[in-house]
Specification:
345 residues, mainly alpha
Length: 345
Amino acid sequence: MKEPGLQQHRRSWWRLLVGGLISLAFLWLAFRGVDWSRAWESIAHAHWGWIALGQGALVLGIWCRAARWRLMFFPQHRRLRQSKFFSIFLVGQVINAVVPIRLGELARAYLIGQSEGVSKAQALWTVVIEKVLDSLTLLLFLLVMGFLVPLPPWLQKAAWALSGAILVGLGLLGVLLGLRRRTEHWLQTLEARRPWLGRLRLARLFAVVVESVRLVRRPELFGGLMAWSVGAFLIGALGNWLVAQAMGLGASYGACLLLLAVLQISAVVPIPTSPGRVGLFHYLCIISLAIFGIAREPALSYSLVLHALFYLPIAVGGPIGIWLESYRWRDLVRILQAEGKAPRV
């Protein structure tokens, strides 16, 4: 009989292998037929002052997302430090970018619970709220863009699939909340019969879900969360637009909004790729900008620069955040394994 740790280790390597193959396939799609002399010319003649502004906008967008995360701990959010949420948010992002399974959310929940003394169960639930808010914001912008630009069939299908997933998830949550007493009793019984499930603290997590839903139903809180969501989206698109101007791409702000929506959908959909979404990121940039008549070579050059700028704050800020929290990488992974919620990597 194989040891569980060995099985988990092998599964992680299989995920990494499959993700690497998928990334190579997308890289081939992105690079085929490219005139590299034209592509490198676009990078060589880029205006680096505008690129610096674009980098600043992308960092500001991350700051807005961290501020939204902090607001999810209402009403105690006022005593929590925004700087901690920002640094720990970057830690989660760098872990998601490097590890072939998404441990970043678990790391964020653990670290914010340790540093700010908040409930780790509530911190885990805020990740779910983030996904719902991001999805609602995406659908809102896709709806607006649908009136301005004829969306290609593949993007329309992705939007419909995302809408269906949100409706199913919200419907299931509504049923569980409507049967709150029965759900609580069922979870407690399940944990009693299956001791290993007790480590997941399902009953405690459901109680946090109930309380979080009550808070989100407050108009001023939901309005604030949506304002941060829309603001982060608009600022992220601004960063994309500034980089496009730096490279003489001629892309409109609307084109950059649509590109950001496509990239965000790819982040929501759990497509296995290599760390950093190499290949998938670049191919999505090319096919999205093609909608607006932008040629493959400048679109590829743009995707290479934008990808580097997108991951630069994560690559720099994430390790700094880990250092500020006084953790080494191996120590952090070991802590996540000890929590009993993550496979070995």
